[in-house]
Amino acid sequence: MVTVDRRTLLKAGATATAAGALGMTTTGTAAAGVPTPTIHSTSEWGARAATGPIVVENHKPTYIVVHHAVDPPMNNDFSLARAFYVAKFIQNLHMDKNGWIDSGQQFTNSRGGFVTEGRHRSLEILRGGTQHVQGANVGNHNSEVIGIENEGLYSTVDVPQALWDSLVGLVAYIAHQYGIAPEFIKGHRDFNTTECPGQVLYNRLPELRTAVGRVLGVSVARSEAEWPLLKPGDTGRQVQLAQQFLRKSGFGVPTDGVFGKSTKDAVAALSVQAGLPRDTCTAAKATDETGFLGSDVWPLIVPADRSTAAWRADLTRA
């Protein structure tokens, strides 16, 4: 059995530090013209009262995080009433199943392009532009992120245009309020090992950053490489490297480049041993994510002879 010490756990929880990197460089268009989106408050959609105090972080968030909402199952109802139903469904799920005090995300975006406030006070605090409400949507990073649930499952299908347009507008407004550069628009999987926000929507994040930068009138720097997400059934050099790292960590897995049962079991055991958060969104309901190897597992197994950024870049090229 491998012993995971506190230093390793801290390493696993550390995403690239963005201190001092929140400022944006304008390209000449007026950021003051960023439209304020219509956001329907918790009182408008009839939210339940939170069961505990809402924590307000006395600083701006570092990252804007995109999620997909597997439940309720998506359909072709694009109405405002449906958006309110989705907001209620997610709040009930988060409170009754997850045991959270309120909705985990700060905002929800419907397939019809309607935006609702998730966790209480998120809209009020966003308008102030100096603090942010702590949510429960990204394990071990909730003090530094603001999260958006997008109605629907986007592992194999694309988002409706209305949802995309409202997502661009909402993210641009949040980024403007907090001075967040587009490079710090992330997907849930960039922090936790999960499919979320779905492969199709995740692949569009560079496009989202570009679109938000256009609204803000700022240049968009190239984002650093992220940890790859490996799943059972995957094959190739990345899998082989992961297997080699697992063997050096004490797990008896093959190094054949095939993500089979023994590799899945080793990753699952390591994740449990390290106390990594699971089921922080409903993505796992669509696919069993047990044994997935992603952003919070890689730092536990890669050798310490390179920086996090260097390892991510090397693994992306592998």
Your description of this structure?
The protein has 318 residues and is α/β, with parallel strands linked by helices. 35% of the residues lie in helices and 9% in strands. The protein is built from eleven helices and eight strands. The chain has a six-stranded mixed sheet, with helices on both faces. Strands 2-6 form a two-stranded antiparallel ribbon. Helix 5 packs across helix 7 (205-216). Mean pLDDT is 89; it is low at 1-22 and 25-30.
What keyword list fits this structure?
318 residues, alpha/beta, six-stranded mixed beta sheet, two-stranded antiparallel sheet, 11 helices, globular, disordered N terminus
Oligomer: single chain
Helix content: 25-40%
User: If you compute it from the alpha carbons, what radius of gyration comes out, rounded to the nearest whole angstrom?
Assistant: 19 Å
Q: Report strand order across the widest sheet.
A: 1-5-4-7-3-8
Uncertain parts: 1-22, 25-30
Number of helices: 11
> How many β-strands, per DSSP?
8
Order of helices and strands: HEHEEHEEHEEHEHHHHHH
Topology of helices and strands:
Blueprint: H1 6-13, E1 39-40, H2 42-45, E2 56-57, E3 63-69, H3 80-97, E4 107-109, E5 115-117, H4 122-128, E6 132-133, E7 145-151, H5 161-178, E8 185-187, H6 199-203, H7 205-216, H8 237-248, H9 261-274, H10 298-301, H11 308-317
Parallel strand pairs: 1-5, 3-7, 3-8, 4-7
Antiparallel strand pairs: 2-6, 4-5
Helix pairs in contact: 5-7
